[in-house]
Amino acid sequence: MTKRALILRTAPLMMAVVLAATATACGSSGPGGQGAGPGKVTVWSLQDTALNPVQKKSVSAYNGSADGIEASIQFFVNDPYKQKLQTALGSPAAPDVFLNWGGGNLSTYVKSGDAADLGSALSASFKAKFLPSVLAGGTLDGKTYGVPMEGMQPVALFHNKDVLAAAGVTRPPRTWPELLDAVDRMKAEGVTPIALAGSQPWTELMWMEYLLDRVGGPEVFARIQDGGPGAWKDPAVTTALTMIRQLVDRGAFGTNYGSVGQDSGGADALLAKGRAGMELMGSWEYAGQLATAPDFVKKGKLGWSEFPTVPDGKGDPRDVVGNPSNFFSVTAKSHDRDAAVGFITDTVTEPAYVKDLIAIGQVPAIVGIEDELKSGPNADYTTFVYRLVKRAPSFTQSWDQALDPATAQKLLTNLQRVFNKQSTPRQFVSAMEAG
Does the domain formed by 154-321+399-433 have CATH 1.20.1560.10? Predict the structure, then answer.
């Protein structure tokens, strides 16, 4: 897994004061494993400097109010966690409740019979507390296997307001023609129109994800994800790739984007220092800029907007891509499934828990929290993220998480070749269709 995968799945949208530190060793507030039996709920989650204290507080509150049920929570580093979870599921050492990333990641546990169908255990009123497009990330074949347990991470188009203004761009581009015009204007001013860390293809994937959605709608990728025959041959795939090559050939990303890194903050620095005008990135971009270039953010120079529409596109322009949330699921062989489900329903939507998430800069997928966000830190941005997701008919999970690892790597490799002009859109399709 790339460092970006770690960021996407473990780093919430948080204030700069909590972004600086990242935990490196496992910690626990109780024993891990379901051997304790009925009445004991063991929870496995990921290490996160800001989130873990909130989770511990929530567990303590639950234990203080639960009738005869005791919960304990254990935290793990990202990659070791995935391996440990795969080994533990189905064994006596498995947790009752475990964190996962929804979508394709969760489907692996469902297919292996290790994740419980929560079914009637979740009331309609409980499920109604979540934004539907995010809750869908824990739903497979109409059955609910996961419940959102932290903030949302959609992808948005960020921009440097000064750079756009200097190029005569009066507003962030709302349509594809406006985006191309903005690219031309900024290029004429001698700045890179769009910052891109092309040495890491997951940054390029965001362009493909949004363009395919705008051109053909979320159904196109859904067929790809399902492994349907000829799914990559959908005309929308070639069209989206052709639009990417249009940007590349136009000089939208400059000339040395292939050597720019995201983990080192290269693309972010281009945007903050005025050497680039725009950047397509996940919602953590705001917090990252706040940590590394605080004046850029605090002086109101950083702007953000939704991805532009495309001419004659079949997709809903309100759709978003990114990472809906992390999810809590219940182990199929839990010794006390009712208690495990009860822990989830009694904690993740509790007002105190939601308030604490907002306090660390997260944007929970909970209905009706607009007023809380408006009175919280970084209100302009967090309310933008909330509205973006709230009104989205579809929230497509990042493809490299939604697809199996082998297919995801093949996708990233071939997409990078398109960005580097080493492959045509048709060659990309042929490569992806090949066995």
Answer: no
